[in-house]
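Structure, all two chains, one model.
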Amino acid sequence: MSVSDRRFDLLRVPVVGRFLRWRWSRAAMQTPLFLISAVMIWHAFFGPQLAPKNLATLLAWVHFRGLVVLLLLLGGNFFCMACPFMLPRQLARRFISPQWTWPRWLRNKTPALILFVGVLFVYEWLDLWSDPWATGILIVGYFAAAFFVDLFFKRASFCKFVCPIGQFNFLASSISPLEVTVRDPNVCVNCHTHDCIAGTHAPLSLANFDATSVALIDASAPAMTHTCGKLIQRGCELDLYQPRKVGNLDCTFCLDCVHACPHDNVGLLARVPAEEIVSTEIRSGIGNLDRRTDWSWLIVVFVFGAVLNAFAMISPVYTVEQAFVRATGFDSKLPVLAALFAFALLIEPAILLGIAAWLTRKTADAGVSLWMVINRFTRSLVPLGLGVWLAHYGFHFLTGFLTFVPVAQYTVRTTFGVDYLGAPLWRLGGLPQSLVLPIELGFLGLGLIGSLGVAWRIAADFAPFKTLKAFAPWAFIAVLLFTSACWTMSQPMDMRGTFVAR
Amino acid sequence: MDDPNSFLFTAGMFASPKTSRASRLQLAFAAMLAIFAANFLVGCRPKTPVHAGSLLATVQFEPNPPTTHGPVKLSVSLSDAAGKPLQIDQLEVEGDMNHAGMTPVFAHLHKTGPGQFAGEIQFTMGGDWFILLTGQLPGNTHFIKKIDVPGVKPQ
């Protein structure tokens, strides 16, 4: 009995597994999301410019975000699996083959990191939550970026190097209970075709080649026939070679490897959430995470950006901003927001992580660089980061998950002039805020426990004889962030847009 | 065999190469499309969400600024462009946050004079709100007027 036989495998669940193994399952999931996106875009530009009555703002900022983080917590990276942005690109690639490889100097997370910060910044700057038109621009821009990047650059360049939502999902899915991985590693040892990354190619046939070519081919050489035939099933376009793949980082759950593996040896298996964060193995398609500072910056934005994004929705942020305005004399939103972002995403993490890493390195007396310590231990904050996103996005989703019903009814009424879906039931909302607060605190608590557990495991590996001392600085940061997030969530919501003018 | 972990070990590399001229054409086409799309989107932004002609509305809250601590008293004055009070009997008021996903609140108003209405509304969260005044003018013309209510104070 192999190890995987004892693990839950979603692909072996009767109906769901059969559907997911179906060659067109991804397209079947992408199509409805693409159609919903099309409706959102149409409503953003031609519907009422009132955020609570517009499908673009409602579905993007309440339902999409809430469902994504909940799915990541409960399952895995299923949004990337059903990503609607990939559908036009896939259709285009049937007619146009990309010609260029992604520039070597950009083969890191820097472009996505800049866009990730950019989206968070623009969200606050332009009050995207209250602006259907700007939200529509963002959605169209996203479709265009995905389409054009992958129209010109081979493989999944957009997903791996550009997409900020993808990076968010990659990091969050390191906490997910499911991962795409091999069922039995022994099967891979004897595999010579590596279809999981190279793709599946049709064997050569007489119809494809002239007699001279056929005569030159040794029919007993499988690798030759394998690589020369037409590609009939993609392998992993994100360079994740299954036998050496560790966890969910960079995995879009596209299941190309599942479809490509001729041995049916790739599954969607259960695992211990967050365990992959502790791993120091060299990861296929990623390398050594201890040397990937770009990943650490991504984690910094993921974690500290979560706290900042929630903080921007409560009253005290306006006090801070007004104090900044008085101190500097700036009277526009841009510099105030830029200063807030610089402090929260640059200065504060640099101080906290720098001091913690210095203390840890000193404690362990390890001859490693400060960056290596930062890169390894910063990963421990990912569970807490997801906890904060869950608490924030979960609040909006849980308090408003039924609001799509009256807004859809209102949209039909205003579009067709007839209540085909009935009169708008405006009373439909979601759970009362008093019920949602304990759920928010629960998410934060889970995040803290996860971060402390991961930090302890990393510290035990890093300084086996001084684990507690190596662990303490990172535990302090986690508790500090947890406390500030709890305080933020317990404040009355105060969703404002044009704060400086008042 | 090539290292399967290499970025260049791609399915795409086996595809037949095209000329650089074709690539340039693709790029030019993409740029034109992007410029056209950006132009279209920037040009088509709706100017105002709801139109109510030359109708003038004055809304006052007590306390001001309004808070989420209990019902807020609301008085509305409606007039035409010349300042003449509107002759209407009913006025509906709906309050919404400017963030999607919040349940709207409704106020029941009673007429206190020509074009004058009063009532109460309960704001449920601090932040920026707007209210929509809906009514029917003489001659069966419906109107909707949007009034911003910025900075409702949380409890």
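Confidence is low (pLDDT under 50) at residues 1-19 of chain B.
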